[in-house]
Amino acid sequence: MELESPCRFSESMYWQLQAEYFRQEGRSAWSSGAVPFRGTSNPFIAHVYAQIILGFLHDFARSDRKKSAQPVTILELGAGPGRFGFLLLRALHQAIHQAGVGKLPRFQYVMTDLADANVQSWLTHPRLQPFFESGMLDVATLDVAALDACRLYHSGHSLESCLGGAPVIVIANYLFDVLVHDAFRVEAGKLHEVRVGLEQVEAETGHSDNPSTLFRQLRFRQENEPIELPYYVEAGFDAILNDYVSTLRSATFLFPVVGLRCLERLRHWSGGCMLLMVSDKARIRAEQLEGRTGLSMAFSGSLTTTVNLDAVARWVGHRGGTTLAPLVPDKGFDTYLFGIGLPKEGRATRWAYQRHVVEFGPRAWLDLVSDAVRRTEPWSMKALLAHLRLSHADPELLVRLEEPLVTAMAEAGDQERAMLVHLLHQAWDNHFAIGAGGDPAFVIGRLLRRLKLPEQALHYYRLSQAERGAAPACDLHMGLCWEMLGEHAQAIHHHRLALEAGQADSGVCAVARKALLRLGADPGADP
Questions:
Q1: Per-residue pLDDT tens for 196-217?
Q2: Nearest by Cα to 523 from 503, 495, 502
Q3: pLDDT(327) > 70
Q4: What's the rounded Cα separation, in Å, for the pair 70 and 54?
Q5: If DSSP states are collapsed to H, E and C, what string results for 238-279?
Q6: Over the stretch 377-403, which tens digit does the pLDDT of each residue have?
Q7: How far, in Å, CA of 209 to CA of 211, rounded?
Q8: Distance (Å, rounded) from C-alpha 292 to C-alpha 52?
Q9: pLDDT-based confidence at residue 411 (cuts at 50, 70, 90)
């Protein structure tokens, strides 16, 4: 069933469906697992970004540029559930504390998202309150296509006045793929507009009010129509298209028109000094576009595409800027840097990118973790601790490595156990709840109990209950901790709670009954 006849892709109803999906779903788009985000929301990548930003701040501090009372703005576009922003703020705070606060220019961090529900969740999230209170963080609901309408929640300032001609660091992870694009094709030296129609494959279901359901049913129909330049109001955009006509033989490609307009406006508001940081599924070189015929759309909660960052690199290049990319970029996921008007030629920024992305960066880390969590051979405690330390104590990784950690504890020495305890506490400091994933507090408690630290374990079991509510397994383990402490009345109380509430879990009930009998208590008595 045809939903829309072929039209200019940027005018398609598809983009309205895309925006409505994120507005409707809010944080649940991520917490449900429908939209992947862990590649750009972990302590490792936050540390990488913090080091690059630190390099930029060093470059700016050493430059001859007139110092302004206006702080550097770090603007995160499409912050989603907010976990990356939290982790980056933590990493920045630690990095700047080590570098010396007085040596660097001031900065403000601004988290933004299209979905107001996401912004409201940040305002009440306990992990973000210290950053709000210090004045380091502000937030705003922002439509990238309507920057003029954006106002910051706490200061009340417009985004333009927030930037105020000072440098801006723009973070756009997994963003460009969901912004409005046009589509073109180059064939035999001629430029074509790719007009896109929408069809609903499972027509018998009718038109769904749920965008996520509809996305699964959508198919695109492409029609190529020859065009001549100029095409855009912006001459710079036409220059990029002309580049493609000159360099590509046969290729269909997307053009991130709204993303580029956003960057142009931010560049103007920042006085021409802008650093753009992007981690995404992307093509960064023209040869990666060659031979393609489709739009490269894939379902991931909503429909996403492999981003044409080559167009962004060309836009940056036409403005005298520079692009930094890995020597062999991975179009599945990688980290890229774009700079315009960088002070001192961005020497410290470039060094940080080389050190923290090119030599061993987020892409390599994801490959290492992916292999680690699939490993079936026994781990040594040294290897497990190395992974956790390299991850900067990632709570998600800790949850996934719980079983090999328990096995390796039997052979662990005192120093290794002490390091594990340190990393467990650090992992909790990195936890940012969004209602998804495992239960880090419970896992940390369970590991601490096995390390014979019952008082510390009880603290984390209480944190688990506070975050996720009472659970039979948690009560069972709290009972075991009280038993280790010799507090038998407390132990009996929690084992009975576990027995009463855990009727659907035979394993929990069996352990609770044995514990009660061991303590001389009647398993059938009321808690």
A1: 999 888 654 555 566 667 777 8
A2: 495
A3: yes
A4: 18
A5: HHHHHHHHHHCCEEEEEECHHHHHHHHHHHHHCCCCEEEEEE
A6: 999 999 999 999 999 999 999 999 999
A7: 6
A8: 33
A9: very high
Q: Encoding tokens for residue 202?
A: 């499972």
Lookup: tokens for 526: 């009321």
DSSP 188-225: TTEEEEEEEEEEES-GGG---S-HHHHHHHEEEEEEEE
The token pair at 443 is 């896992």
Task: Give φ, ψ of 252 to 5 degrees.
Answer: -105, 135
Q: What is the Cα–Cα distance from 80 to 91, expressed in whole angstroms?
A: 19
Instruction: Report which DSSP code applies to 356.
Output: I
Between these two residues, 499 and 424, which has the higher pLDDT value? 424
Residue entry with tokens 């509430």: 501
Which domains, from first to last, does the chain contain?
A: 2-16+181-254 (no CATH), 19-178+260-289+301-365 (3.40.50.150), 377-518 (1.25.40.10)
Residue 221: beta bridge partners? 197
DSSP structural state of residue 103: G
% of the chain at pLDDT higher than 70: 93
CB of 147 closer than 8 Å to CB of 245: no
Mean pLDDT for all residues in the chain: 91
Q: Encoding tokens for residue 92?
A: 């920045």
Q: Which two tokens stand for residue 119?
A: 């912004």
Do residues 335 and 307 make contact, with C-beta atoms less than 8 angstroms apart?
A: no
Residues in the chain: 527
Residue 238 has pLDDT above 90, yes or no: yes
**Number of Cβ atoms within 10 Å of the Cβ of 127:** 18
Cβ atoms of 173 and 85 within 8 Å: the answer is no
Amino acid present at 355: R
Q: What is the DSSP letter of 158?
A: B
Measured CA to CA, the distance from residue 290 to residue 253 in angstroms comes to: 9
Q: Which of 205, 248, 241, 258 is nearest to 12 (CA)?
A: 258
Contacts 24+ apart (CB under 8 A), 371-379: 372/397, 372/401, 373/397, 373/400, 373/401, 375/404, 378/404, 378/407, 378/408, 379/404, 379/405, 379/407, 379/408
467 phi-psi bin (left φ>0, alpha ψ -120 to 50, beta other):
alpha
512: its two tokens: 């609770």
Contact between residue 365 and residue 330 where contact means Cβ atoms under 8 Å apart: no
The helix/strand/coil state of 426 is: helix
What is the spatial distance between Cα 354 and Cα 323, in angstroms, rounded to a whole number?
Answer: 12
